[in-house]
Write a structure and sequence with these properties.
- The chain is mainly alpha-helical and 392 residues long.
- 63% of the residues lie in helices and 1% in strands.
- It has a two-stranded antiparallel ribbon with strand order 1-2.
- β1 and β2 form a beta hairpin.
- This is DUF2029 domain-containing protein.
- It comes from Streptomyces alanosinicus.
- Keywords: Membrane, Transmembrane, Transmembrane helix.
């Protein structure tokens, strides 16, 4: 079956229906946090006092990147209810597109290794079925456009990395950070690039981050206080199991989250397991976060989706389903805060150890893109693309 020139992928059709089911369920109590985006875009564009470049200095509670406010502005001309519904639909659609991108990235990464494409589609279907409930949680129920955009741009960065587009990798990572600052943890993806182009890709990433954020800091030094904004340390947080009983976010917590995520990602790249970078950064975030909102799990499920689709070749993507059951299932059925915190900590530590150190079977023909040119001379070789970029 085809639509125009494009064949219909039945696993995507099934995932679309699965998304529609969860959309209908979540839409009854949707857009819990959309007012933050609406307020922020009004402040950024000077439609309310205390905004403009003073936005973060005067409103440190808006822990949202400027790119997210720009995109939120696209829905501002509509009546409030209509704008919310359109934003919900838009963000849900991005999740489905991300599934397509990850499937294509997995196919490209493993080209020339004897990959069974039907099995890959089944793997994406099963992992995607775990991903969708958490994606609808962040995109529809909570309407966190900032988290949605950070994860979407990160997915584009993964796709660009696999295709050998070093500049695009840096640009998309910058847009992710400019949408939500915690996306800094995904920067180790740059280390997966070949050395000749790594520096230029990093320059694009850091340069675009500076362009987006420095105007706020240079014009209003009080913006630095936004980095110290705190939230309550909830009883179900894993921090309690580390003996952290502060009533609010400890001063060291946010830097520790980013440092741990970056360190784990660097180890993953060093061990030739770069598809684990997104998962490990999200893992570090929820392990050390004082809050336990269910929408946080969307970043973890994106990470497991990338790992299960690109980083391993088992038919059953059990890491994704263990993540869903451990993080979301426990929140629904376990009443004890302490027990939920223990399960969260056990999952984070155990899953990180697994993806970093469990022995991996090398695919036939070599590792992914390094085998492409030998097995498929007519295919575009990402390494060749990187070399060509390095010469310019």
């Amino acid at each position: 079956m085809r639509i125009g020139r494009n064949p219909v992928r039945w696993h995507i059709v099934l995932l679309t229906l699965w998304t529609a089911v969860w959309f209908v369920v979540a839409e009854r109590h949707s857009a819990i946090s959309w007012h933050y985006l609406r307020t922020g875009q009004q402040l950024l564009f000077g439609q309310a006092s205390g905004g403009g470049l003073a936005l973060y200095a005067n409103h440190p509670d808006l822990q949202i990147g400027p790119v997210s406010f720009l995109v939120a502005g696209l829905f501002a001309p509509f009546p409030l209810d209509v704008g919310e519904k359109l934003a919900d639909a838009f963000m849900s659609g991005l999740g489905l597109y991300m599934l397509v991108l990850i499937g294509r990235a997995a196919a490209d990464h493993n080209r020339g290794t004897g990959l069974n494409h039907k099995r890959l589609q089944q793997r994406v279907l099963i992992a995607g079925a775990a991903f969708i409930p958490m994606w609808v949680e962040v995109s529809v129920r909570f309407a966190h456009l900032d988290d949605v955009l950070a994860l979407f741009f990160t997915t584009l960065a993964v796709r660009a990395l696999v295709r050998g587009q070093a500049t695009a990798t840096g640009v998309f990572l910058a847009l992710a950070i400019d949408s939500k600052p915690w996306a800094v943890g995904f920067l180790p993806l740059l280390l997966a690039l070949p050395r000749p182009v790594r520096l230029r890709s990093a320059a694009w990433a850091f340069g675009l981050v500076a362009v987006a954020w420095l105007p706020f800091y240079l014009t209003h030094l009080d913006t630095l206080q936004a980095a110290r904004f705190t939230i309550p340390n909830q009883p179900a947080s894993s921090l309690r199991w580390f003996g952290v009983n502060d009533p609010a976010t400890p001063s060291w917590d946010r830097p520790a989250q980013m440092a741990l995520g970056i360190a784990l990602g660097a180890v993953a790249v060093r061990r030739d397991r770069w598809p684990a970078v997104v998962f490990l950064a999200a893992d570090a975030r929820i392990l050390l976060d004082p809050s336990v909102y269910t929408y946080y799990n969307a970043s973890v499920l994106l990470g497991t989706l990338i790992w299960d689709s690109i980083g391993q070749r088992r038919l059953v993507p059990w890491v994704s389903w263990i993540a869903l059951i451990s993080l979301y299932g426990s929140a629904l059925v376990i009443p004890s805060d302490a027990t939920r915190g223990l399960i969260r900590m056990a999952f984070c530590v155990g899953a990180a150890a697994y993806v970093l150190f469990w022995p991996q079977r090398a695919p036939r023909g070599g590792r992914g893109r390094r085998a492409r040119r030998a097995d498929d001379p007519g295919a575009e070789d990402p390494a060749q693309g990187w070399a060509a970029q390095a010469r310019h």
